[in-house]
């Protein structure tokens, strides 16, 4: 994501690059230990329900991956979404802390980014199922992070009211 003043060091996510940044994959393609631990905790907390509540996913339960989370709140019946928490590892990976930003603010940072994320968040809310992604976050001309991540639904009474993103990152280099 880009700063309003500069794109330097930021990850560019728009409709043309969204698939490279994070395309949907089956869980079997995820092997990053941080993401797998998040899925284990989420599954443990949901028990026999479709998904756990936000209250069940406490900082104590998420301590091994807390730096890697982004908590997204669904706001309103025709939801807007707001980034409520942006963990330190996510800030580094995406080049900016987006806490407090909503879909329209994401579009101002990078045209189309808000729509891409909004469609993904809508899917997680409707399906009530985790969505796994893999991709590459370009940080500079010859520097990138491989991203593996999961978007996990949270809520109660069969309605998703929050989405928990947990990303695992591995530094990779591109040949000049």
Summary tags:
alpha+beta; 32% strand; Beta-Lactamase; six-stranded antiparallel beta sheet; 176 residues; globular; 5 helices; 6 strands
Average predicted confidence as pLDDT: 84
CATH topology: Beta-Lactamase
Instruction: Note the beta-strand portion.
Output: 25-35%
Unreliable segments (pLDDT under 50, ≥5 consecutive)? 1-12
User: What's the CATH H-level homologous superfamily?
Assistant: PAS domain
User: In terms of structural class, how would the helical and strand content be classed?
Assistant: alpha+beta
Radius of gyration: 15 Å
- Cα(first) to Cα(last) distance is 23 Å
Helical content band:
25-40%
Per CATH, the architecture is: 2-Layer Sandwich
Sheet with the most strands: spatial strand order? 1-4-5-6-2-3
The structural domain count equals 1
State the order of secondary-structure elements, H for helix, E for strand.
Answer: HEHEEHHHEEE
Strand tally: 6
Summarize the biggest pleated sheet: 6 strands, antiparallel
* Shape, principal axes of CA atoms: globular
Number of continuous helical runs: 5
**What's the CATH first level?**
Alpha Beta
Secondary-structure map:
Layout: H1 18-21, E1 23-25, H2 33-46, E2 69-75, E3 80-86, H3 88-94, H4 103-109, H5 113-127, E4 131-140, E5 143-156, E6 159-173
Antiparallel strand pairs: 1-4, 2-3, 2-6, 4-5, 5-6
Helix pairs in contact: 4-5
Short description:
The chain is an alpha+beta fold.
Describe the model:
Helix 4 runs antiparallel to helix 5 (113-127). The chain has one domain (18-173): Beta-Lactamase (2-Layer Sandwich), CATH 3.30.450. It starts with 17 loop residues before the first helix and ends with a strand. With 176 residues, the protein is α+β, with helices and mostly antiparallel strands. It has helices spanning 18-21, 33-46, 88-94, 103-109, 113-127; strands at 23-25, 69-75, 80-86, 131-140, 143-156, 159-173. A hairpin with a 2-residue loop joins strand 5 and strand 6 (159-173). The protein has a 6-stranded antiparallel β-sheet.
